[in-house]
Amino acid sequence: MSEESIEHIDFDAINEKAISQPLVSHIYTADPSAHVFDGKIYIYPSHDIDAGIPFNDNGDHFGMEDYHVLSMDNVDAATVDNGVALHVKDVVWAERQMWAPDAACKNGKYYLYFPAKRVNGIFQIGVAISDSPVGPFIPEPEAIEGSYSIDPAVFEDEDGKFFMYFGGIWGGQLQKYRNNKYAETNEEPLEKEPALGPIVAQLSDDMLQFAEEPKEIEILDENGKVILAGDNNRRFFEASWLHKYNGKYYFSYSTGDTHLICYATGDNPYGPFTYQGIILNPVIGWTSHHSICKVDEKWYLFYHDSSLSKGVTHLRSIKVTEIKYNEDGSIVTINPYRE
Ligand code: FUB
């Protein structure tokens, strides 16, 4: 939804139809990456603020400066804000725009992964470490070598290997890269060309680096062909997430300018993944970003919308709702507002 059109919308009426309410309302939060660590739910969101930066297509108005970790004893319990877990001023290599983070736990240590822009305006992904799931996190002095673009999401497979999924086009800068190399002249492929895919790399044993060269993932259509750049309802835009259900790998993502959260399935963490359908229809606000997490034998979608801020795209609020699977493993599409 464009910023110009929001004044005509009756947000009170929409909020009454919302299937879920914001988990917290004292701060704006977005891009929720949810995990269960030691039986408790921890949510690693962006912390939205009004940084006073005018709206533009690069997303500079998303001027976030820090992260707060939220926690819940269960999905119906009160959500606790555990305060500032990491601030950009403490990250030597980063200057601004602390966008969508994720976290992982290994051997009792917690790792917060986050994208931010360097002084030269280029996004990279960093990691910060803590003994506690809520921080404070101590950042590494440099970004992860070979990292680029935005939206890191870390998946732990059943064999204990960790994989990072990342990338986002437009403001997320993925279109500037081919084969992990940046060139200012690179742009999005033409409409009839294969869309750019998300990127995956296994993490090193110490969780601080990539263990391999990042690889581009293919998202295929029903005929086994890579989805095209002009297929805006299905092509990858940003907000990678991976989860495993009944032995299958489910890669989910946002389609950006068509505002859908979609998913594709595959047989291993590297894909290819075959497009299956829509998980979440458009929410209030331009962006859509989610995570999928199993809590007490049920599956939940953590997502955000801009209902609380009455449609301000960079002031979002995280929400949660249950996901239902059909017998064949397909996911029932969620409408965030009742008819
Ligand atoms: O929060 C800033 C950006 O907006 C995220 O990195 C994207 O996924 C979108 O939600």
Automatic annotation (TrEMBL):
Name this polypeptide is given: Glycosyl hydrolases family 43
Hydrolase is among the record's keywords: yes
Site (Important for catalytic activity, responsible for pKa modulation of the active site Glu and correct orientation of both the proton donor and substrate): 151
Record keywords, A-Z: Carbohydrate metabolism, Glycosidase, Hydrolase, Polysaccharide degradation, Xylan degradation
Xref: InterPro entries: Glyco_hydro_43, Glyco_hydro_beta-prop_sf, Glycosyl_Hydrlase_43_Enz
Domain of life: Bacteria
A GO MF term: hydrolase activity, hydrolyzing O-glycosyl compounds
Pfam families membership: Glyco_hydro_43 (PF04616)
Lineage: Bacteria, Pseudomonadati, Bacteroidota, Flavobacteriia, Flavobacteriales
Signal peptide positions on this chain: none
Family annotation (SUPFAM superfamilies): Arabinanase/levansucrase/invertase
Source organism per UniProt: Flavobacterium fluvii
CDD domains noted in UniProt: GH43_CoXyl43_like
PANTHER family reported in the protein's UniProt record: ENDO-1,4-BETA-XYLANASE (PTHR43772), PUTATIVE (AFU_ORTHOLOGUE AFUA_2G04480)-RELATED (PTHR43772:SF2)
Similarity comment: family membership: Belongs to the glycosyl hydrolase 43 family.
GO terms (BP aspect): xylan catabolic process
